[in-house]
Every structure is written in C-alpha cells, then in structure tokens.
Amino acid sequence: MDSMDNRDDRNFARREARRRRRKRAQILSFIVLLIFVLVVGIGAFFGMKQIVKYMENKKSQELVEKQTEEIPTDVEISEPSTEEVAEETDDLDTLVDSNISGMSLEDKVAGLFMITPEALTDVGKAIQAGDGTKKALEQYPVGGLIYFEQNIIDADQLKKMLANTIMYSKYPLFMGVDEEGGKVARLGNSKLGVDKVDEAAAIGATGDSGKAYAATETIARYLAEYGFNLDFAPVADVVTNPENEVIGTRSYSSDPEVVATMVQSAIEGLQDNRVSACMKHFPGLGDVSTDPHEETTATEKSLADMRECDLIPYITGIEAGSDMIMISNMSAPQVTGDNTPCCMSGLVVSDVLRTELGYNGIVITDAMNMKAISDNYSSAEAAVQSIQAGVDIILMPDNFKEAYQGVLDAVKAGTITEERIDESLHRIYRVKYRESQNLDTEGSDTDTTEPETEPETETETTAE
Predict the structure, then answer these.
(1) Residue partners of 117: CB distance under 8 A and separation at least 6
(2) Residue 1: pLDDT above 70?
(3) Does 141 score more than 90 pLDDT?
(4) What does the pLDDT average to over 18-33?
(5) Which superfamily does CATH assign the domain made up of 105-434 to?
(6) How do the domains of the chain map onto residue ranges?
(7) Which residues are catalytic?
C-alpha cells in the first residue's frame, strides 16, 4: 500500500514539474515575443520618421527648384539678346554679301561715286527725275546723289524728284545734302519754310549739348520727310586760327572738348532719326587760312599737334557711331611728308583714321571738283589714288565719267583689286541696309521728264 502511495506521489511531482516548465516556457516565449514586438515597433517608428523627413526635404527642394526656374535673371535675359544681335549681324552681312556678289564690276565701281544729279544726267540744272534720270542710273548706278539749293523749287517738286530717283535706281541710294544749320542749309535757306536751325558757333556758345541734339533732330526730321537719308554734318573742325574763313562759325568752338561734346549730340540727333551723319573735315580744317575750294590748302600741324586738338572730336564721334567721315582736301606735310591731299594719303586715311582711331565706317572724300584737287590732278588720278589710300566713296569728281573710267581701268589692270572695291561696298551697304529707309514715295508713279527743252546754263556747284 505504501509503495503505491509513493509511486503516486512521484508521478504527481513529475507532472507538477512538467507543468511548471511549460509555464516558464510560455512566460519566456511571451517575453521574447513582447521584446520582438517592441523592437520592431520602435524600428518602424524611427524608419517612418526618416521617410517622412526625406519626403519633406525632397518636396521642399522641388519647390525651390520650381521657384528658381520661374525667377528671371539678368544672365538669362542678356544671353538671348546677345544671340539676337549676332543673328541680326549675320543676316545683315548675308544680305550685303549677296547684293555685292550679284553686281557686275561696272556696277561695283559706279557704286563708289556720289555725284550731283546734273553730273549724272548731263543737264544744266536738275529739278525733275524722269526718263533721263532712269536711263542714266541704268548705265551708271552710282552710290548716291547730292543736292543743292538750285535743285529745290517747292515741296512737291522736291519730294517727287527724290522719290522718282530712288525708284529708278536698281540699288539703294544715299540721298545727301549739306544741312548744317546757319548759313550752310540747302533746305533751310530755300523757300520750303522748314524750321531754321542756329549755326554751330551759336549752339556751342551755350555750352548745352542738348541744343546740338535738338538742332540736328529738327534737321533730320524735315530731311527724312523730303526723302534724304544722309546729311553732310556735323562739322567737327576746331577753329584755332582767327583768319580761318572756310569754317568760321560753322565750328562749335575753338575748344576741342566743347566741339567733341556737341558733335556727339549732333550725330545722335541725326542718326536717332534715321538720317546718317557725316563728320567733316578729317583730320581737321580749323587752323588753315586758305580755302581748298579756291586753292591748294595746307596745315602745318604735326600728328602730335592734331592728337592734342583736332582729333579729339573725331574720337568722340567715332564712339558715337558716326556712319560716315569726310576727308579734307587740304595737305598735311608735317604728317605725310609731302603735299599729297589728305583724301589721297594712305597714312592719313588707313594709318591714322582706320588703324589708330579704329574707324571702320564709311570714308568719303570732300568734293573733288575743288581747286585744291582739280588744279593738281586729273579726275581719274584723284579717284584712283583716293581709293588706294582707303577711301570708300568719291564725292563730286570734276569729271565723273573720267573718274569712273579711271577706277574701272585700274581694277582691270590690277592696280586696284576687285576685293578692295568689295571691301568699300561692304561698308557702304551695311549702312544702307542696316535700317530700311522708309522714304516717302508718294507720287513716284507720275511720269516726269528732264527739263531738256528749257534753256539751261551750266552751273558749278561745290560741297561745303
């Protein structure tokens, strides 16, 4: 009996022991599971926090980038502007080169001359443009025409004459005039009734460059109204010789700085209103005592002297973008070493004006029918030597046809290369094509004829 009781006690003890082990195992498993859940939960919490932070940062970065793209900057604005300017320049060069490449040699040479309508048509006084003008321009398509008071009768006549002339030319024309204001004003001193402008000396005496701008602005507006696109102004000479009569009150001042300031404003007043300016008379006609219209004229100034005075207005005018510069017919022996007129001197035109002063615009001679030229050179010699010196346009040769033939023969003989002619034409047509010259052509379809049936007297005209 006792044995069985003992066996029952041992079995009970073993069962209790197993029960306690299972309970401990369950508790341990629960603890492990709880720890695992806590670890996973904590990890998930911090993981989600990092994910949220990452997403917030990314969203913020995208917003900043979007706002940056929407804000215009100076660089972003200026770059397209530069590209547009370059594209416009390329287009202009393409247009110019295309025009030149299609020209015959004869047309190219004719394009280097600017003459009076009388020299073109062989009439005594041109007041109309009809069949005679049309035929003459077909044979001699000159680069431009210059007009004087004798060509002006009234407003309608002047507009019609210029409009017809432009229409008859197969190439763009410079339609030029001496319109400085004061005593040199072809339209201002005619019966057209345009607003008169004070002479340069009176404007310069005020010290107000705004008056110089206002004066040439007035001139440009009425010139454009009649069909002109080129004014042989402003005068950039510094008058330092009290005996100088050829310039006199046509100069703004005897102070080069005053002249420079006035010349800059005068150029802007013209060219802001789409009339090309032509500074004159390089390298400076302000200290001579004789008149190249009447006789050989020379300055005794050295180049160093000119740099300190006469060249100052030209430096300023070049910076202002003057489309054209006129070369004087005077001699400068202290510069060139001889009595060669400045317009025929490579040292003056190419070395000083082109290289030293950096001017790459159009260079034109003064009127070559002045006695300083015509008494010493044939029309052909003067034209050829001027082009060899670096000049682009020959103004009013004493004998146009002789000068034209002389240049044409020089090119054919190789004395002047065709590339040299093209170089000048490129400068000329860059200005002519730079802006469309919307000239008033009202009435240009009216049939008019040259006044050849009327009595005519030969007249001699010279530019100022």
Answers:
(1) 123, 126, 129, 133, 145, 147, 151, 161, 165
(2) no
(3) yes
(4) 64
(5) Glycoside hydrolase, family 3, N-terminal domain (3.20.20.300)
(6) 105-434
(7) 293, 366
